């Protein structure tokens, strides 16, 4: 039994088995894996002739699957036969199709790639004895997204293969940003980071600079000196944003949005909520981004954050209803927030 990363590595190296069984709770991950096989072996011009699908949940007999496998491919070396949602592999099933699968797999012609996938009902479900028994006859792929320590270990291996070392803290920060379990995407991001750092060691700042440079990160950069009571640096970051073409109302809106998030985080922390609770509540996907937000929120009291939000609302009203200098107004907002 292999994980989805190993499967993707094999496909990239053109190591393709004759028969697969994907199992797990992530059906989309299975479909992506199956498509990677199909794209490797079937010409899209003959897709309809060389790709046959069966709904495993409705399959009364395995004979039509066998017939499809035995039919030669058209204008191609390979054809693919897919049996999707093949729930007859589950241990609580006593299905005659399962016996026929055991008997037929050794007879499968080289011209056909037979693929099954079985979607588990819940995260608690594990591959049962039927699947483990099949593991000796075909390639079983555990199609669940790899997270946490397992993901970090895989990613560390990719860095080491490129002769690049990465520290534990940096590895955790990088891994938390890799939401895709797509080997090619992750390898491209690793290559990008290795090229960016050249012969230097990888730092969290490198990761932030390369992967978090978006509008949210600009606001992180502005809120940081505000939270540190640094008027000069705050105004410098503001001027940089204006120089880059950001409009004052937009900057104000983003500041207000960030203070609102900080207020919510601070409130959750006051109520003894965990980091995982905060990520779920605010829909934050990255551990690293969550660490930044939590760190910023701890530099303010709830009273200060309430006042900052009120100052934002007051500034918004003034900018909308008068001809005052918008830049001066937002500078005053920053100063009043720091001195409040």
Key words describing this protein structure:
single chain, 340 residues, alpha/beta, Rossmann fold, Helicase, Ruva Protein, domain 3, Zinc Finger, Delta Prime, domain 3, 3 domains, six-stranded parallel sheet, 17 helices, 6 strands
Q: With helices defined by DSSP (H or I, 4 residues minimum), what is the helix count?
A: 17
Query: Looking at the structure, what is the overall shape?
Result: elongated
User: How many distinct beta strands?
Assistant: 6
> What is the number of independent domains?
3
Structural class: alpha/beta
What are the segments in which pLDDT stays under 50 over at least 5 consecutive residues?
A: none
Q: Can you give the helix content as a percent range? A: 55-70%
Arrangement of strands in the largest sheet? 1-6-2-5-4-3
Rg from Cα? 27 Å
Give the name of the CATH superfamily of the largest domain.
P-loop containing nucleotide triphosphate hydrolases
CATH hierarchy class name of the largest domain: Alpha Beta
Q: Looking at CATH, which topology of the largest domain would you report?
A: Rossmann fold
- % residues in beta strands: 5-15%
Q: How does the major sheet shape up?
A: 6 strands, parallel
Overall residue-averaged pLDDT value: 86
Distance between the termini: 60 Å
GO molecular function, one term: DNA-directed DNA polymerase activity
EC number: 2.7.7.7
GO cellular component, one term: DNA polymerase III complex
Catalytic activity: DNA(n) + a 2'-deoxyribonucleoside 5'-triphosphate = DNA(n+1) + diphosphate
């Amino acid at each position: 039994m292999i994980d989805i990363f190993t499967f993707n590595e094999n496909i990239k190296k053109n190591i393709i088995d004759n028969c697969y069984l994907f199992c797990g709770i992530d059906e989309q991950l299975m479909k992506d894996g199956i498509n990677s096989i199909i794209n490797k072996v079937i010409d899209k011009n003959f897709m309809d002739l060389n790709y046959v699908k069966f709904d495993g949940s409705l399959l009364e007999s395995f004979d039509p699957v066998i017939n499809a496998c035995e039919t030669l491919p058209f204008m191609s070396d390979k054809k693919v036969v897919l049996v999707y949602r093949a729930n007859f592999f589950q241990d609580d099933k006593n299905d005659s199709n399962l016996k026929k699968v055991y008997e037929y797999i050794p007879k499968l012609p080289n011209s056909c790639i037979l693929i099954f996938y079985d979607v588990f009902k819940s995260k608690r479900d594990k591959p049962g004895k039927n699947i483990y028994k099949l593991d000796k006859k075909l390639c079983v792929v555990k199609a669940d997204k790899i997270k946490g320590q397992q993901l970090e270990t895989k990613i560390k291996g990719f860095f080491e293969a490129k002769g690049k070392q990465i520290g534990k803290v940096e590895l955790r920060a990088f891994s938390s940003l890799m939401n895709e379990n797509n080997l090619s995407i992750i390898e491209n991001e690793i290559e990008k980071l290795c090229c960016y750092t050249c012969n230097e060691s990888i730092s969290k700042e490198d990761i932030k600079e390369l992967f978090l440079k978006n509008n949210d990160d600009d606001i992180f950069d502005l809120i940081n000196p505000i939270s540190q009571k640094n008027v000069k640096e705050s105004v410098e970051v503001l001027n940089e944003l204006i120089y880059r073409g950001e409009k004052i109302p937009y900057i104000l809106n983003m500041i207000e949005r960030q203070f609102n998030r900080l207020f919510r985080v601070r409130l959750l922390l006051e109520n003894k909520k965990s980091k995982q609770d905060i990520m779920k509540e605010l829909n934050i996907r990255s551990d690293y981004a969550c660490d930044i937000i939590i760190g910023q929120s701890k530099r303010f009291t709830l009273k200060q954050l309430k006042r900052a939000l009120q100052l934002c609302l007051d500034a918004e009203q003034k900018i909308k209803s008068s001809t005052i200098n918008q830049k001066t107004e937002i500078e005053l907002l920053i100063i009043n927030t720091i001195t409040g």
